Structure to design on (574 residues):
């Protein structure tokens, strides 16, 4: 997509530098001249919002690491020290803790957008899978970060999640002991989680680089789901059009972020995490952070230990193989009347699983979680492959320009 | 030939260098040194459960009542999810010593709770009997019996 750059530096120094390292030309072709579909809506600003959140998490995290102590006897108190003594420490910590939630909120919207508009379909499979890799790295980072304050939920969340590995036949116990560096979650575990929590965001940044590279090779999908055919008619330059639209999206998102940080900073947290970790007392009701709840519900829905772990990871595997499960040749749900409804049913299913993951595993909640878990997998393994064969899609516009300019009666035409 | 030899030697070298970086995460010498612990059980009343820490994990020492012993012994072993007779899990019938870690995902079960008077795990609902055997719920195995020995009638050594 981003062909040879036509960028010519204006100054002599610029030309001297460009002939030795064409960095400015690369930036120009990627983020200035790069053709973006002219029909992108605000759901497409979440890529930029996620980039912003990654930077925000790294900046606040590096600063927090200057005041935090990764030792079981001091970690909890060092977090309280950050909250009470460190200049602006309360704000930086709340930015980081709520930033994780905002990061996940944005990534779920970004994934849902990809699913609605078929952004995973050929030729964007690698782009999509790199996104799933980023999502997995984010989950590992978020999980280890939550352990660091060494509160009750930190400790018991770490215990439950690391114990998932004991479900592996034969070598499970050895792997878990290796992960712990002992016979239970203890100081070696906390210390290495801190090290890895600092490392993984930079690995995320590297995979984001690949993700953007793959995006710029195949080009952006768009609400019409048809590729750019005529650069003049179908696209606009990234700058100023996408740059400003992304900036608007980021600004609105920051308002939501700031509202959480300054008005309800503990709304998404768990009160039990303000109690120091006690290895001899399990809290009566262990719940992970909200962004893991749907997967936690799937884990608990299966009445077998190994089975629960397999289905939980299987839920992510579904995303990896999604490009090959969806058999429809039409990308965008705008032109798929049945898929459009089933997409929202799927979203409701995931939100339902999230709610059930927050409830104690008793009575009707267990049955409901089993039904929704079954539906989650049926959506991917049965509905999507069959729907492509039986659904009659509406006529797809010949080009992006057609979808926005002619008498299009779909939601895109009206927009 | 030279390429194959170089390649083979390199593979060995990579493995030899990688191993210390993997093995450093296993339990270190100071963790291994804390492997055993002693407890005076003379003060534990009948019916009482005492929790002590061993290898960073809780161990339940339970002074069982006659009723609890009978409940544990009267079970049809063949019907249990993890079949084990009570006699294989205790050294003296009055004393049950088990690791207090749910075999599901590692929570600490609550004593004297659940349908079988043993332990109930609040995390995911596993129910254990008065022999620490799993009776209902997602846990796959009975509560683990640690290695232990009676040093005297009132003293045990765990580990």
């Amino acid at each position: 997509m981003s062909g040879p750059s036509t960028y010519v530096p204006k100054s002599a120094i610029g030309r001297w530098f460009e002939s030795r390292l064409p960095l400015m030309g690369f930036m120009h072709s990627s983020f200035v001249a790069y053709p973006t579909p002219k029909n992108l809506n605000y759901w497409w600003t979440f890529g930029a919002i996620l980039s912003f959140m990654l930077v925000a998490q790294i900046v606040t995290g590096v600063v927090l690491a200057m005041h935090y102590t990764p030792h079981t006897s001091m970690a909890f108190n060092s977090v309280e020290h950050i909250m009470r003594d460190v200049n602006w420490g309360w704000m930086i910590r709340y930015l980081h803790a709520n930033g994780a939630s905002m990061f996940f909120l944005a990534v779920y919207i970004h994934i849902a957008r990809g699913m609605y508009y078929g952004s995973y379909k050929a030729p964007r499979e690698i782009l999509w899978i790199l996104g799933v890799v980023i999502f997995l790295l984010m989950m590992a980072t978020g999980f280890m970060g939550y352990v660091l304050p060494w509160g009750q939920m930190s400790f018991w969340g770490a215990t439950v999640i690391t114990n998932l590995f004991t479900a592996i036949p034969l070598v499970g116990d050895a792997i878990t002991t290796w992960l712990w560096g002992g016979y239970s979650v203890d100081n070696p575990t906390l210390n290495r989680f801190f090290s890895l929590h600092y490392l993984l965001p930079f690995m995320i940044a590297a995979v984001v680089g690949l993700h953007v590279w793959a995006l710029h090779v195949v080009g952006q999908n768009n609400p019409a789901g048809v590729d750019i055919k005529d650069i003049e008619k179908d696209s606009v330059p990234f700058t100023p059009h996408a740059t400003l639209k992304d900036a608007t999206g980021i600004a609105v998102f920051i308002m939501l972020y700031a509202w959480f940080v300054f008005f309800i900073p503990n709304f998404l947290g768990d009160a039990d995490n303000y109690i120091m970790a006690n290895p001899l007392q399990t809290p009566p009701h262990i719940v992970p952070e909200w962004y893991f709840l749907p997967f936690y519900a799937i884990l608990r829905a299966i009445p077998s230990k190994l089975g629960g772990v397999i289905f939980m990871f299987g839920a992510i595997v579904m995303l990896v193989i999604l490009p090959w499960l969806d058999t429809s040749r039409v990308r965008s749900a705008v032109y798929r009347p049945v898929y459009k409804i089933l997409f929202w049913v799927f979203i409701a299913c995931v939100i339902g699983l999230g709610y059930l993951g927050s409830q104690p595993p008793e009575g009707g909640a267990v049955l409901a979680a089993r039904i929704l878990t079954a539906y989650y997998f049926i959506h991917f393994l049965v509905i999507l492959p069959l729907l492509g064969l039986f659904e009659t899609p509406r006529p797809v516009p010949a080009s992006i320009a057609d979808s926005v300019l002619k008498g299009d009666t779909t939601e895109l035409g009206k927009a | 030939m030279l390429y194959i030899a170089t390649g083979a030697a390199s593979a060995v070298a990579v493995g030899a260098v990688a191993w210390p970086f993997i093995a450093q995460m296993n339990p270190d010498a100071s963790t291994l040194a804390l492997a055993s612990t002693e407890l005076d059980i003379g003060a534990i009343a009948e019916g009482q459960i005492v929790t002590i820490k061993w290898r960073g994990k809780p161990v339940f020492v339970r002074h069982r009542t006659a009723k609890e012993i009978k409940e544990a012994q009267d079970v049809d072993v063949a019907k249990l999810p993890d079949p084990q007779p009570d006699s294989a899990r205790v050294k003296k019938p009055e004393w049950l010593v088990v690791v207090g870690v749910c075999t599901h995902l590692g929570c600490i079960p609550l004593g004297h709770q659940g349908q079988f008077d043993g332990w109930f795990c609040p995390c995911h609902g596993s129910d254990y009997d008065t022999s620490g055997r799993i009776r209902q719920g997602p846990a796959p195995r009975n509560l683990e019996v640690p290695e232990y020995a009676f040093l005297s009638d009132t003293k045990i050594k765990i580990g």
